[in-house]
Structures are given as structure tokens and as C-alpha cells.
Amino acid sequence: MIKRLTACIGEFKRDTILTPIFVIGEVAFDVLIPMMTGKLLDEGVKAGSMGHIIQYGITVVAMALIALLLGALSGRYAARASTGFSRNLRREMYRNVQKFSFSNIDKFSTAGIITRLTTDVTNVMMAFMMIIRVAVRCPIMLICAWVLTFTINPQLALIFLIVIPVLALGLLFIMSRAHPIFERVFKKYDWMNNVVQENLLGIRVVKSFVREEHEKEKFGRVSQEIYLDFSKAEKILAFNAPLMQLCVSACIITVSWLGAHLIVGGTMTTGQLTSMFSYIMMILMSLMMLSMVVVMIVVARASAERITELLAEESDLRNGPNPVEEVKDGSVVFENVSFSYANDPEKECLKNVNLNIKSGQTVGILGGTGTSKTTLVQLIPRLYDVTEGRVLVGGVDVRDYDMEALREQVAMVLQKNVLFSGTIKENLRWGDKNATDEEMVRVCKLAQADPFIQEFPDKYDTYIEQGGTNVSGGQKQRLCIARALLKKPKILILDDSTSAVDTKTDALIRMAFREEIPDTTKFIIAQRISSIEDADLILVMDGGVVSAMGTHEQLLQTCAIYQEIYESQTKGGGENE
């Protein structure tokens, strides 16, 4: 874990190294100041020597200024190192997420990834800053101050050897009890973020079903659980302050009582006792700050483990040793393909699929909910790897392709159409970042999107709100189809992506496909038979198997499932309703 996290320091190693160097310099001057102050009292004030007063006074002021300068420099470099470290952590996590396959993404919730990128990184950043600054300063100051107290009076210095084990045992108790609670709390943070995310994304559904009170109750429940866990953890951490205060008070009282006897006995001067008190406060403040660092590390440890979990996750889809860079054509072959999301042959959702699709063919896919229609097409761009058998595109096993090269030639319009914040042009250029205005207008005409775009005041510069909330479902689908066409793919997959458009527009889109992209292999998943009846081949899915295949006319004669769907959609004009 430590190795993986420290690798993210990257270009901020210089700042990370300079911070403790300046801290050590600051401590060196800080611990010398009480000694000079003691001499100022003994050789200057008590002896009535103005020369010594001026000499030691100037020395103390100079030391304080130098310590201030070094402290400011250490703070500056610590801030740069910690914020840079957190930036690199977020960047590496985000980059790693982009490499994930769908199966990797399925392991983490969206809310969990967001919590790791925000709250967890902030916790680790704060702990890192305290480690390179406070955790360096405090031990050095503690040791130096204790050594100097030993030079003043060894008997008094031994008092601290009794206090330190007491504090160490107390901190060990706090760490062992608090860490498991923080681990649990951050998992509940994921849950809370998920509740908020679901509510905001589905706010229209919540209001239409008048479920605001239910949502408030759900959020209140998870918020209350986080409150209770945090309260429990904070109660344990709260032992730190009284334990420190007890040790501080005990040391001051003991040193005061013994020091007074030593001064009366003539074995210690007033200046030495003053220095001793200063060193006592340094030692105890160092111990107190160290305890705060320990507490912060306890909190950050749970976050660091979660961050490492995300960084350590490796995509289970990788390029082979010599990946093929070019897709010859849009032909697709399934050879004895079976697939399980759990990678378990006993839980296969696709079973023994065999298909031979020629380049340029249009393939319709029909079936009920849960018949693995989407799963079938997701194997073509290798979003998942088959459990058994193989999928060939352009005559080559998809596992032998460079994944980026393969996916560049396969355009998908998924069930959940997603538009991003930005103009229509910016969204379209996801298909081709160098597309000209003329090319964008062309594909929008093919997707029947140009007419409604022209009605917007800003036309193609119209701003799309987050999630495409300012366009209708049908408009969103047509923009997503246009975006896919802009890739000029060899294979186009439409996953129920015309469900929100009327039958006339659907027919115009299919006609444009036939006339404008005849060489592109098209897979169309649909619920309406009218969307696929003119396909070269129609697959009927049932229970994860291809139960029938053929043309529209053939299936009407031979497939009972197809006949039933056709009759239910055409009887009484249902197809146009």
C-alpha cells in the first residue's frame, strides 16, 4: 500500500524532501532559544549585565526570526507537496478507472469511486502533510529538548521516561479501537453518496410519484448511521486530549516541586528552571502533536486502503503481445460462444451461440427482457470476454485486436443514451473530434436530428445540460445515433435506441442506413418488429440462446415466439400506438 501511494508523489519529490529539511532547521533554532533565554536571565538580568542582556537578546530575536523563516518555507513546500500528491492520486485513480472493463466497473459503485476521489483523497492528503512536517518536527524536537533537559538536570529529565510509555499505550488503545469504525464509516459514505446520486438523477420520478418523504427518510437513515459511527469513533479519539492534559499537568507539577527544592538547595539557577519549563512545554507539545498525527493517520489509513484498492484493480481485458491494429471489414462470427458475468459455467446468460454475419448485413435482434440481447452485442467490441468459444470481427478473434483499434471501428448506441454537458457540436465530436460542420450536419440528417436542431435558436451551438435534460428522449436518441455515425464505423450497434422515436422517424432512419451506409454491418436490438422487419437476418433470443433466426417472412412461418410478438403488435393497430 505504502509503495503504491508514494509512487504518486511523482514530480513533487523535491518539495517532499525539502519540507523536512527546513523543519529540522526550524527545530534546531527553536530548541536553542530557551537555552539562550536561560543565559539571558542568569548572566544578564540576575547579574545586572546590560551587555549580556543585549547580546543574548539579539541572539534570541535572530534565532526566532530564522526559525520563523524556516517554518514558513517548510509550510510552503509542505503545501505544494501535499496538494500535488493529492492531485496525482486523483489523476492516477481516474486514469485507472478509464482502463477498467465493464466487469471491473461492476465491482465498484459510482458513489464509491466518487468518495475515493474526494473524501478519501482529502484525508490522505492531510495525513501526508502532517507526516512530512509535523511527524518530522515533533520527534526531533522531543529528542533534542529531552537531551537539553538532561544537560540541565538529569534527574528532572528522567520524569519524561515515565510519561512517554503511558502516552504510547493510550495511543495504541485509541488506534486499535477507532480504525475499524472509520473503515465502516467510509463504506457508509459510499451508501449515502449513492442515495443522493439516485435521488438527483431520478428527481422527476420522485416528484411524479410523490415520494419526497420516503427519500428524506432513506437519506435520514443513512445519515443517522454515519452520525452514530462517527460519534462512537470521536468518543474514542476524545480520550487523547485528557490523557495528554494529565501528562502535561503531572510533568509541570513534578518539575515545579522538584525544581523549587533544587533552587533552594543551590544546585539549579532560576534561568535553568525557566529553560527547563520551556523544554517541558516543547516536549509535551511535541507529544500532543504526535498524538494528533496518529489520530489523523488512523482516519487516513482506512481511506488509503480504499484508494489502494482502486489503484490496484487491473483491467481483466488486455491487449495480446502483438495486437492487430486494423479491422479488415465488418463481418462478425460467433463460434460456440457462451458467457457468464460471474465467469461461472453454471451461471451462463449466453449459451452456445453460433452466428455468421457478413459485412454490410443488417441484423435485427428481438426477445423479451432478460434474454441477453445486450450481452450478445457487448461481446463484439470486447466490452466483456467470452467464457467459452470465440468472437471474430473481420476474420480475427477480438482478443487478438488492439482494443482501441477494434472499438474505433465499432460504434454503439446503448440503451441508456448519455449526452454530456456542452454544445451539440461538442457532443457530436465524441464520434470524431476533427469532424467538420458539414459532416456533423450530414450525420444529423441521416439520424433525423437536423430538423429539430434547426429549430433551436443556437442550432448546433445549443448547450446540452447535464444528462441531456433539456432535450426529449427521442431527440437524445437521434443525437446519439448521429454521434455514432460520425465515427464512420465498420459495425454499428443500436441497442433499443429508437424506442423513443415515432414509427415514421424510425423508418426514415432505417432507410438512411440502407442508402447511406450499405457497407456498415448493423445490429439493431428492438422491441418493435417494424424496426427490424426489413433486416437481412433476424435473431430471436430466448433464455440466453438464439431460438430462431431468419428473415421476417421465414420467422412468421416457423417461429412461434416471433408470430406471437407480431400479432400482439399489429392486432388492432397496436404497432402504431
Describe this entry's structure for a reader.
The strands form three sheets. The chain has a six-stranded mixed β-sheet. The chain has a four-stranded antiparallel β-sheet with strand order 2-1-4-5, with no helix packed on it. The model is unreliable at 572-577 (pLDDT under 50). It is 62% helix and 10% strand. Helix 6 (134-152) runs antiparallel to helix 12 (270-312) and helix 20 packs across helix 21 (560-570). It has helices at 2-6, 13-45, 50-99, 102-105, 110-132, 134-152, 154-157, 159-201, 203-208, 212-237, 240-265, 270-312, 373-378, 403-408, 424-428, 437-446, 450-455, 473-485, 503-516, 552-558, 560-570; strands at residues 332-339, 350-357, 362-367, 388-393, 396-397, 410-413, 422-423, 463-464, 491-495, 521-525, 537-542, 545-550. Strand 9, helix 19 (503-516) and strand 10 form a beta-alpha-beta unit. It is of the alpha/beta class. It contains 21 helices and twelve strands.
Q: What is shown here, in short?
A:
This protein is of the alpha/beta class.
Keyphrases for this structure?
4-stranded antiparallel sheet; single chain; about 575 residues; disordered C terminus; alpha/beta
